[in-house]
Amino acid sequence: MKTTHRPALLAKVHIARKELALQDDAYRALLVQLTGKTSAKDLDEPALEKVLAHFTKCGWQPAKSTAKKHGQRPQTVKSRQAYIGKIEALLADAGRHWSYAQALASRMFGVEKLEWCDDDQVRSVMVALEIEARRHGRGR
After folding, report:
1. CB 105 within 8 A of CB 125
2. What is the pLDDT of residues 23-56, one digit of tens each?
3. CA 98 to chain CA mean position, Å
4. In angstroms, rounded to a whole number, what is the distance separating the alpha carbons of residues 72 and 26?
5. 117 with 111: CB under 8 angstroms?
6. Which residue has the higher pLDDT, 8 or 75?
7. What is the pTM of this model?
């Protein structure tokens, strides 16, 4: 029986392994010692949590998410992906985060999230960012 937390735990185990610079043979020996299995894909949730607890004792610290602080790239339909890519580039060039684009969409159209905008609205946010970039000498 798979649960929703298992994939996230499995990903954390692989990230911790990489960040701790564990070689494959040492990693597999550690898995056998802790769980009796040679591969993390064969572990259930409690076993994955046990491995993560051991990695934490070894000094691994999970990275803190910046998504809440800075916002995250909106998930949009394919027709808007080119606009979203350009918005992302303009934000990066200006040193701004996705929360800036979200606030811009909110002020311009009264929508709470950029992904709720239609194609024309997303394009308008992109154009507004281009105008702002040119105004500050970052444009063409």
Report:
1. yes
2. 999 999 999 999 999 999 999 999 999 999 999 9
3. 12
4. 36
5. yes
6. 8
7. 0.49
